[in-house]
Amino acid sequence: MTHLLRHLALALALVTAGCASLPPPSDRSDTTARVDTADTRLGRSGAPLTSAHPGLSGIHKLPEPHDAFAARVLLAGAAERSIDAQYFIWNGDQVGYLMWQALWKAAERGVRVRLLLDDANTSGNDATIAALDAHPNIEVRLYNPFAQRKSRGLAYLTDFGRLNRRMHNKSFTVDNQMAVVGGRNIANEYFGAGEGIGFADIDVVAVGPVVQDVSREFDLFWNSASAYPAAGFVGPAAPDAAEQLLARFAQTEVDPISRAYLDAVREATLMDDLRNHSLRIEWTTAKVVHDDPAKTLDREARTDVLLLPVLIQSLGRPEKSLDIVSPYFVPGDEGTAALSDLARRGVRVRILTNSLAASDEAVVHAGYMKRRRDLLRAGVELWELKPTATEESLKVKGRFGAAKVAGLHAKTYAVDRRRIFIGSFNFDQRSARLNTEMGMVIESEQFAGDLARTFDDEVRQIAYRVRLTPDGNELQWIEDKSAGQEVRHDSDPETSAAKRMGVGMLAILPIEWLL
């Protein structure tokens, strides 16, 4: 309850907060992706495959966390010319430092590294960022940075209009030849480590023309008016910064969790499979969709800078089915009406989101809970992930230890079992109107069908089915047990009355646009 009251107080303060701004970036040169990379190791490995599939891109899914981690480290290890990485969260934990080490090693080989970090989640990492940025082959830029490094809560209150808009994009591109795009940030919880929340998520690794699209998206953000050289905010690196960073890398390597990750990298076969042409790749058309970074500074509610209209157009109008997986689901008036209209037209609309007990952002649940009745009355199917969902189904348990709570973090949508989006875009107001987002729309009956089969075959074991009581006025949560037995819950399962009351209070406030 105390946590929810803090959210309530912050929400009330934010509604009345003023606005400020930063001066435009200075002492910065525009740079673009390397194009002279066909003769690199990755270029040579991928050339026979792309030549055999002209005009198509190759997509390989990464649903399992250790594979997703290994893919990034292996690609960094194969880099010869460039690494471009763009992330919303990059934590200073085991995963974070192992990935920073991979970038450092590449830079030591002469690889140009460009690292673009949203500044909302860099707290405590300024010294590391400064040390990385001081390397002659590494440049770090902070997106929409905080001028006040220590009192970020106060900064929100004085500069809310700007700081409320974040870069949520996630991509990792090597030599402009292969790229990883999806929902994972760089932190333990996104790769199945530790004892807190373990997130179920999905990335794809791509080869072919779509990689150049990812690079163009990166360049657009890297050279945007919201990307500032990190040194102007984190300060200069200490004289012994490199030695301290190398010591931290060595310390991380001997950590038990880190050793398990490094074992996963050694056992991963991604690069060998690519060279041997045995990597399971779907060759198809794929399109990168993204917001324009001008969205971050927009104050005129422009629609031409938004991802959402492009995403809707790229996925196409559903005729038979629409499957939605979104951890934060806040459809608002327009989204609720659109989904309800589809369901009434006979389109099967199925939604999987976090339950209140599984969500790591209970405040976001306030924007979803008041839409459930309208959606259910229209015929939309709602499923809410259990906090006790099996790690085997969610792919969050590996050699790295088991998370206590299973949380959903994947953002993926499939239309008519033919086209699928995989990326960073949540079906909520923040992704639609405030944060910048990106992802891929992939023409794939296999990938879209896999998502449909998750709803068909697995969702009953990992989620509650939300339905209306016979009189249509109240909600019920149906939990499947073994031997076909069902358990009915008359309130959000595995939550306290105080938590439900707190979220209900937030739902009354006019803060849906923030969620």
UniProtKB/TrEMBL annotation:
SMART domains with a match to the protein in the record: PLDc
Renumbered residue ranges of the record's region Disordered: 23-57
Positions with biased composition (Basic and acidic residues): 27-42
UniProt entry tagged with the keyword tRNA-binding: no
Record's keyword terms, sorted: Signal
Domain PLD phosphodiesterase: 163-190, 404-431
Domain of life: Bacteria
Signal peptide interval: 1-22
Pfam families on file: PLDc_2
Name used for this protein in its record: Phospholipase D family protein
